[in-house]
Amino acid sequence: SPPAGKSVSIHRRKTERMTAAILFAFASAAFLGAAVVTSQLGLRTMEPLSGAAVAVPSFTLLFVLLSPIILAGEPVVWSGLPIFAALGLFFPASLTLLAFASNRALGPVITSTLGNLAPLFSVALAVLVLHEPLHSTQLASLVVAVIGAIIISVPRPRDLGHWRSWALLLPLAAALVRGVTPPIVKVGLAVWPSPLWACLIGYVMSSLVLLAVQRIRQGRFLADAPRSGLFWFAVTGIANGLATLTMFTAVRHGPITLVAPVIAVFPLVTVLLSKLVLNSVITPRIVGGTVLTVAGVALVLAG
């Protein structure tokens, strides 16, 4: 057995990594929840796909400008480049496009509600592919947190509108894309342990995809885009980019079975900011969903 001093040192390093994973996961949830609110402000003057063609490249441009500073001392591991480049082809690009199609077919309510299933996909892949341990208590806690997030998102039945059952595949596909991303990132970070490079490469690829789609769709990149829309989608892009970067960092430091449920609390941030910025009404349903979400995540962290 290792000496007592060495065991204490190993335990301390493990505790520090877990603490970092939890803090970065909460930061990711905060940025993601804020981005939902700022995107609503942008959608008042621009349609979603044009907004996505502003949001993702905005963070990419900011990242590229800051890269000489923030990437200084970060070694390049060329064997990890194909993994992050392939990831960038569908995240966040295809996620944005799926959300756009889902919003058109079903509306934002069902889209956001089914999007909360993403942690279940993340944890399932982490257990099956990465062989991360998952105890029954952790699984129950995750389900409680996800149910709470869904309750927060679901409105009154009369607000759901009309939809076709096949269209439910769109938000489910979006949730699947968001869910499979952390395990893929985990695999890539095992080869190239740099969340900064992973985020930059992924965002560059996604920016190229979205700009190409926008160009093909409209014949130009931005068609008479109002300044307010450009501003709010640029803010949204930066918030989403920081959410992605902190999520990658959280996955680098801790298991997905811990990180995914914590990030699932982002609807709480959305509800709070919607109340402050958009003057939204907080109903007993939202309070109940909040209690479930917090209880589920608390049980995950306690485990």
Helices, by number, come to 13
- What does the average pLDDT come to? 82
Structural class: mainly alpha
Distance between the termini: 26 Å
Q: What is the molecular shape?
A: globular
The number of distinct β-strands equals 0
List low-pLDDT spans: none
Beta content: under 5%
Radius of gyration: 19 Å
Could you state the oligomeric state of the chains shown?
single chain
What is the N-to-C succession of helices and strands? Answer: HHHHHHHHHHHHH
Biggest beta sheet summary: none
Q: What percent of the residues sit in helical stretches (DSSP H or I)?
A: over 70%
Task: Provide structural commentary.
By secondary structure, the protein is mostly helical. Helix content is about 80%, strand content about 0%. It is built from 13 helices and no strands. The chain has helices at about 5-40, 50-70, 80-90, 95-105, 110-115, 120-130, 135-155, 170-190, 195-220, 225-255, 255-265, 265-275, 285-300. The radius of gyration is 19 Å and the shape is globular. The chain starts with a helix and ends with a helix. The mean pLDDT is about 80.
Q: Which key phrases capture this entry?
A:
single chain, 303 residues, 13 helices
Short description:
The protein has 303 residues and is mainly alpha-helical. It is built from 13 helices and no strands.
Topology (SSEs and partners):
Layout: H1 4-42, H2 48-70, H3 81-90, H4 93-106, H5 108-115, H6 118-128, H7 136-153, H8 169-191, H9 195-218, H10 227-253, H11 256-263, H12 266-277, H13 284-302
Helix pairs in contact: 1-10, 1-11, 1-12, 2-4, 2-9, 2-10, 3-8, 3-9, 4-5, 4-8, 5-7, 5-8, 6-8, 6-11, 7-13, 8-10, 9-10
